[in-house]
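Hi L.,

You mentioned the student needs an example of a multi-chain input paired with its predicted structure. This one should do, with 473 residues in total across all chains.
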Amino acid sequence: MNSDSLTRAFVILIRRDLMLAVRHRAEMANPILFFVLVTSLFPLGIGANPALLQAVAPGVIWVAALLAALLSIENVFRSDFEDGSLEQYLLSSHPLSVLVLAKITAHWLVTGLPLLLISPLLGILMGLPVDAIKILFITLLLGTPVLSLIGAVGVALTVGLRKGGMILSLLVLPLYVPVLIFASSAVDTAATGLPVTAHLSLIAALLLLALSLSPFATAAALRVSLS
Amino acid sequence: MFNNFFHRMASPKHFYRLAGILIPWLAVPCLLLTLAGLYYGLVKAPPDYQQGDSYRIMFIHVPAAWMSMFIYVVMAGAGAIGLIWRIKLAEMVAISSAPIGASFTFLALVTGSIWGKPMWGTWWVWDARLTSELILLFLYLGVIALNNAIDDKRMAARAVAILALVGVINIPIIHYSVEWWNTLHQGPTVTKFDKPSIHLSMLIPLLLMAVAFKLYYAFVVLMRARCEVLDRERNSGWVKELAEKT
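Structure written out for the whole complex:
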């Protein structure tokens, strides 16, 4: 078993998941719709005062992104669990953590990336200045993979449970707090015209930490859930 | 030989007997220290020159807050031991710790809130420490919910151990992010009332209470773990013998 075949397995797994997603296009749209809907509810709820909207926009957009990520992350292992392919990954001679990383990557490409692409539109709707929208884009680019990586651990722990959804949010949301804080305050700071390098570095650090640790935790959790 | 010793100590039957002997030796000193701590704290210690008598809630609040973090670390450590060496006893200690830790966290939040009302004029402020303590409570509740949701006890214990380990890595990150968030956003609106370096007459009851709380945790976790042992080993011979004897 050399590294060449491992790379191939990684690529094949991503390609398979992307193909599955393309065949179910309607499902791909759901998180985006949710993201846009939740964000557009806020002006209706708190009034259309532009100054107020601009003040709450970073937090609102990020909380909506967080909830959309939470909603969609549940599916990362669900169908594989139901049709038994998850057990095949466990039995495979490749390290489970790498296969898990492929699953998470594919899932992010299908659900995280669309959020990222639609976010400038939401920034405009909420009246953010252009500089802040740029930073919003960068924070989502760095932050949404963290959400997927942390969420995958929670999903792996709850995948076999009948009522996993409610527990999943209890497990995962507290762990999302640092990303939310750094990302929304980065956008906030950018809106006032101050430099945000420190915030972005911290989110990038969180991403690297999650990227290096989460696959192992997820793999361990899957082994427990499927034992 | 060393390994052997641990495995023998960790055998459920042996643990059940040993814990039964230890519990009174922990519970009685705990009670005595609590009484002494409360007496020195509530009666003997002088009132604070700024806060009057309301500072006295500190003798409950501060040890409870210490315990809330201490127990999470113990839980994660026990969980890791259970995961790595497959020692059932460590799993049981981890599981049994979660509700106690959650109670201490809740106690710290409630007493802090009661303290905050006369001191800060409000029940709740989004102060960094309060917020991270609240998130700690959520982490505990997540652990408890996950444990309840999984029917198979051993599987639940291992899942909880993984969650506790993920949480223990995140606690410092959450703590500092919350701290920076507060300073980034609004500056110190809640001025940390300048604490006069604590006087010995207040420090002694505080330490007494801290030790009493530690002992409380120790004997309650043993009691809970004993129940857990009986529950898990209910089909084994020695538990049946025990049940017939009583």
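You could point out the following to them. Chain B has one domain: 22-189+202-245. Chain B has eight helices and no strands.

Best wishes,
N.
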